[in-house]
UniProtKB/TrEMBL annotation:
Native source species: Darwinula stevensoni
The protein's name in its UniProt record: carbonic anhydrase
A GO MF term: zinc ion binding
Keywords in alphabetical order: Lyase, Metal-binding, Zinc
SUPFAM superfamilies linked: Carbonic anhydrase (SSF51069)
UniProt xrefs under Gene3D superfamilies: Alpha carbonic anhydrase
Domain of life of the source: Eukaryota
Entry keyword Ribosomal protein: no
Gene Ontology annotations for the cellular component aspect, listed alphabetically: plasma membrane
């Protein structure tokens, strides 16, 4: 399972760096106890009864709330959107460290429906060709290794 957060910098609009930034982490751990970081967002999902609806999350939170605690190892590559038209305008960052989500919190996502009426589960896009794009790896340096 995975989650992705999209970030677009309007200050870069029109520049050669005009790319959507996506941070992704694998949910390797579905746990029984809820993850407090997801409480506000999971509650907001209950207000999304119609496809395409939106609802603010209160209080607003920094993106770091939903990121792994350990950001020292990650992969980065230029890629594409995962939904049509699948334009190659994304910089993907994939973290090695998984994050956890509570089983009940996850069920709220499974109740959401797409614009076509289907559930938002099993919507995995097949792997795509790399088109000679490099995949960069940054192992990071844990603070404990500095002495």
């Amino acid at each position: 399972m995975l989650v992705g957060f999209a970030y677009f910098s309007s200050t870069l609009a029109g520049s050669s760096d005009e790319r959507l930034k996506v941070f992704r982490s694998d949910f390797a751990q579905v746990v029984e106890e809820p993850n407090p970081a997801w409480n506000d967002l999971a509650r907001a999902l209950t207000h999304l009864e119609e496809p395409g609806a939106d609802h603010p999350v209160h209080p607003p939170a920094p993106l770091s709330r939903w990121m792994p605690d350990d950001l020292s190892g990650f992969y980065r590559y230029n890629g594409s959107l995962t939904t049509p038209a699948c334009d190659e305008v994304v910089v993907w960052t994939v973290f090695e460290t998984p994050i956890s989500i509570g089983r009940r919190q996850l069920r709220r996502w499974h109740r959401l429906t797409s614009k076509t009426g289907g559930r938002l589960t099993g919507n995995i896009r097949p792997l795509q060709v790399r088109n000679d794009r490099p995949i960069l790896y940054d192992p990071g340096f844990p603070f404990s290794s500095f002495g």
